[in-house]
Amino acid sequence: MSDIRRISADEAHACMQQGHTFVDVRTEEEFDAGHPAGALNVPFMLSVQGTMLPNAEFLSVMTRAFPKDARIVLGCAAGNRSARAATALASVGFSGLLDLRPGWNGARDAFGQVVEKGWLAAGLPTALAACGGSYADVKQRT
Q1: pTM of whole model > 0.90?
Q2: 107-120: per-residue pLDDT in tens?
Q3: Which of 76, 94, 112, 140 is placed for a possible disulfide with 89 were both Cys, Cβ 3.0 to 4.6 Å?
Q4: Would the pLDDT of 130 be above 70?
Q5: How many domains would you assign to the chain?
Q6: How far apart are CA 101 and CA 74, in angstroms?
Q7: The CATH number of the domain where 23 resides is what?
């Protein structure tokens, strides 16, 4: 993953203003509870009866929804899922990837203390409704 740049929330917002698409890889439930304004939801993991399971459709949906050179910022809750999603996408040829290092909630140290503000705490634009960016909407467009 060394060639995938990990960026701050402010950098991610600036990239979106320059035409990058924000893909939130959190679950549909997490996305519905709040997400970056303008984000699309393609979960890397799915919550099934309280258990997190890999989304078997993730790569196929992303491949159908975006060209391999699309400029994409990936984000999740704290930066872990998005880093794994970026690695998976890079392995199938995606090249314009950026990873939101602190995620939505912020990066935390081993003691649970926030060490870098995430999107929400940075005060960047948020939305509660999918506004056309839900996982179902993304899948319909492919």
Answers
A1: yes
A2: 999 999 999 999 99
A3: 94
A4: no
A5: 1
A6: 9
A7: 3.40.250.10
Detail the DSSP E strand segments found in 38-129. Answer: 40-41, 45-48, 51-54, 72-75, 97-100, 107-108, 114-116, 126-127
> What amino acid is encoded at 120 in this protein?
L
- Write the single-letter amino acid at 12: A
- Quick one: DSSP state of residue 4? S
Residue 97's DSSP bridge partners are 72
What pLDDT, on a 0 to 100 scale, did the predictor assign at position 1?
A: 43
Annotated catalytic residue, options 4, 7, 72, 76: 76
- Residues in a beta bridge with 40: 23
Q: How far apart are CA 95 and CA 54, in angstroms?
A: 22
Tell me whether residue 76 is one of the annotated catalytic residues.
yes
Geometric angle at alpha carbon 11, from 10 and 13, rounded to 5°: 65
Q: In terms of residue numbers, what domain contains 17?
A: 5-134+137-141
Question: In the 8-state DSSP scheme, what is residue 78?
Answer: S
Average pLDDT over residues 18-43: 96
